[in-house]
Amino acid sequence: MISRRRFLAGLGGAMVALPALESVKFLGGSAKAAGKENPVFSVFVRQGNGCQQAISGRDEPDRFWPSALGALTQDSLANSDSDRAVSELAEYADSLLMVSGTRYAFPGNGCGHTGGLNQCLTAAKVTGEGKDSLADGESIDWFLSQQVNPAGIEPLNLMSGPQSAYIAHGLSYSGPQQLRGASNNPFAVYQDLVGLAGASQELLEAIALRRRSVNDLVRDEMQDLLGKSYLSAADRERLQTHFDVIRDIEVNMSCQLTDSEVMALEDISGAAEDNGNRIAVAEMMMDLIAMAFSCDANRVATLQIGTGNDGTRYTVNGELQNTFHRISHRIDGDGSEGAPIPNADLLHHEIDRIYARMFKHLLDRLSLYTSASGAPLLDDTMALWTNDLASGPPHSYRNLPQIVAGKAGGFLKTGQYIDAGDVTHNKFLNTLISAAGVCKADQSPYDSFGDAELEAGVIPEMIA
């Protein structure tokens, strides 16, 4: 069996008619975890600077979590909890699992931002000091990739933001202190996914022309056949179904984006790090993750939005605001001193809403595709919106915002908001690993990810 990556490179990006696609639809790797019939795809989206939530000792109401534990419904999120950031996800209430009550186990060694970022997906101790510290263990994306991806396919590690910063990327680790670089140019990521990395501009233009020509030919032939008066109703229905499948495959199953989407990726490639493109690049990366999952080119991805102490300036209420980092401190300064920023808690809340809308974009995109089970791809996905801090001030590690979307093939008990009870977040990551289909030798949930000193276990309330 050849890999989907090699197949796409050989195909040169051109669309082909349905029979040929049917003959290769099994491509993309045969790895199965824990005997799962259909693969589970995993994506981890990181926000920095904590969320705006109620913190003991500070006069700020909670504007992040739902107002009550229990069942989540579209009505409750959109109406009763319309003042909460998570209300932006109301449309997906049935597919959401919100988990409060998890915490990082280890101190940040002089910098809360890098300490949280290092622990976020590793549940490992932090080694070194300050902004230069590293995680002393592998991250969940790398661990899962070794279990569910074909040999040699590393997890996608993506970023929206500059790679040169006080604290840059720090989400993905291939082992103790082995930080993986993050790709922040969506056009380069797309070229790599479709096997065109390093191709000349002339070749790219020729491929685009050939792709359009083949697609147009297929459409013309099908429309001509559908216009034949001698066709029976049954034949006409079969042809229309065939045509509809081709149309869906053109975008959903071809491991390509539309021409206009590819042009948008190329147009932004020279300015991918610009402040004003932070949201656009994040959403483009989400589009690419969904595309990679839909054609089984990769089953695991991370997306870090913003740098470690995210200095992005977001537009709120029509005005470009101070940096997110300073808003999270509530003062016009990156340390402990500075003039108070008026309504900083409200601004932080509005930025949380921006992140919620970005996460919703990912869920929208995953819902466009159909998985091998015939269900929306989101149903066979485990998507996490997480944070390397729990709050703005005081940059706590306790009560981390953990928002999971997707049912992981039915493993996760979605449609609920639970309190895990102040457990170390390795148990949360263990539950996600189990949801991806990785288990112990006796087929029980995997329970030992992270630092060996941590108590093993999962969060049973998350499991259906």
Task: Explain what the structure shows.
The protein is globular and about 80 Å long. The protein has 13 helices and 12 strands. The protein folds into 2 domains: 1-30 and 195-254, no CATH class; 38-187 and 275-462, Alkaline Phosphatase, subunit A. The chain is 35% helix and 13% strand. β8 and β9 form a beta hairpin. An 8-stranded mixed β-sheet has the order 2-12-3-11-10-1-7-6, with helices on both faces.
| Number of extended strands | 12
Radius of gyration: 23 Å
Number of domains: 2
Tell me, what is the CATH class of the largest domain? Alpha Beta
Helix content: 25-40%
Widest sheet, order of strands:
2-12-3-11-10-1-7-6
* Spatial shape: globular
Summary of the model, kept short:
This protein is an alpha/beta fold.
List the helices and strands and how they pair.
Layout: H1 4-11, H2 18-23, E1 41-47, E2 70-71, H3 74-80, E3 96-103, H4 112-120, E4 126-127, E5 134-135, H5 140-148, E6 156-160, H6 186-193, H7 201-226, H8 233-253, H9 259-268, H10 278-294, E7 300-305, E8 313-316, E9 319-323, H11 324-329, H12 344-368, E10 381-387, E11 402-405, E12 416-424, H13 426-435
Parallel strand pairs: 1-7, 1-10, 3-12, 6-7
Antiparallel strand pairs: 2-12, 3-11, 4-5, 8-9, 10-11
Helix pairs in contact: 6-9, 6-10, 7-8, 10-12
Q: Keywords, please?
A:
2 domains; 12 strands; Alkaline Phosphatase, subunit A; disordered N terminus; alpha/beta; globular; two-stranded antiparallel ribbon; 464 residues
